[in-house]
Amino acid sequence: MEELSFEHIAIMGNLFYEDSNKKIYLTPEEPHTYHSNQWIYKQLPNIEEWRRDVQRQQQFHQAHQCTHLAFTFPANHHLDNDWKQILNKEGYQLGVLELYVIESAELARWQTKSDVQIQIVDKDNLEDYLTIYKHFALPFGHRFADESVKRTRIHIQQQYDNVVRLLAYYQNQPAGILDMIVSDEIVEIDGFGVLENYQHQGIGSTLQAYVGQYADTRPVILVADGEDTARDMYLKQGYIYKGFCYQVVKENIK
After folding, report:
1. CATH number of the domain encompassing residue 174
2. Helix orientation angle between 126-137 and 142-158, rounded to the nearest 10 degrees
């Protein structure tokens, strides 16, 4: 398996600026989408450098109606207690993202359920997909959910991106979704969720088996919340842990 890293993860946003230390994503048409409006560090800054970047990002974001600050730190760099105390004091939410990889052939061998049907999303099943999509987006706020649904609807209707969106029906009822971000080298799993009432019915494993078949010989990657119970599930299922990174967000900036 090729050595994969966070560099292979797709960022859905406009790359506004890049230098040897960082990438700046700024997407004015989606001001409430954190990952589309963030700074990704290649090198770990010191605290004073970061404070200067905070001021610059705040100016950028306020000029484009973004009401948050967001930074992703380099992969596999721990933030010490000084960092964590400052971030907590200044009102940032600190999260850990973890990268997992699995061979497509292994996924393709997973057992599937005959009463689970997988469809690629198109104009005919678009509304079923978006209903589930919004359900999983709402915990991040109504503004984000509405913005994200609007963007996704346009992307599907106009076939705008390299995302293949899957919709799972369980006994003819829409039950789960999964996005495949497809490139020549890899397939990335994103936007993966099964509605609570339909969990433990083999829907998630059937969706992932479909990904394995679709990916053919390409490896499959995904990013999981390091504090999410799903991480244990991925390890048990055969995914290989490839590293972590810290991500911080501050909401409702003035």
Report:
1. 3.40.630.30
2. 150
Average pLDDT over residues 97-101: 96
Question: Rounded CA gap, 37 and 148, in Å?
Answer: 13
d(CA 144, CA 242): 29
Rounded to an integer, what distance in angstroms lies between the CA atom of residue 201 and that of residue 195?
Answer: 11
Q: Which contacts (CB < 8 Å, 24+ apart) does range 111-114 have?
A: 111/202, 111/205, 111/209, 112/202, 112/205, 112/206, 112/209, 112/210, 113/201, 113/202, 113/203, 113/205, 113/206
Cβ-Cβ contacts under 8 Å for 198 (sequence gap 6 or more): 170, 173, 175, 176
Percent residues over pLDDT 90 in the chain: 91
d(Cα 163, Cα 227) in Å, to the nearest integer?
A: 26
Adjacency order of strands within the sheet including 38-41: 15-18, 22-25, 38-41, 68-72, 240-251, 93-102, 220-225, 187-194, 173-182, 163-170, 116-120
Tokens of 143: 């503004």
Q: Do 118 and 191 lie in a common domain?
A: yes
pTM, two decimal places: 0.93
- Which helix (DSSP H) or strand (DSSP E) does residue 173 occupy? strand 173-182
One domain for residues 113 and 62: no
Query: Same structural domain for residues 14 and 87?
Result: yes
Quick count: other Cβ atoms within 10 Å of Cβ 117? 14
Quick check: 166 and 118 in contact, CB under 8 A? yes
pLDDT tens digits, one per residue of 71-90: 999 999 999 999 999 999 99
Q: Per the structure, how many domains does the chain have?
A: 2
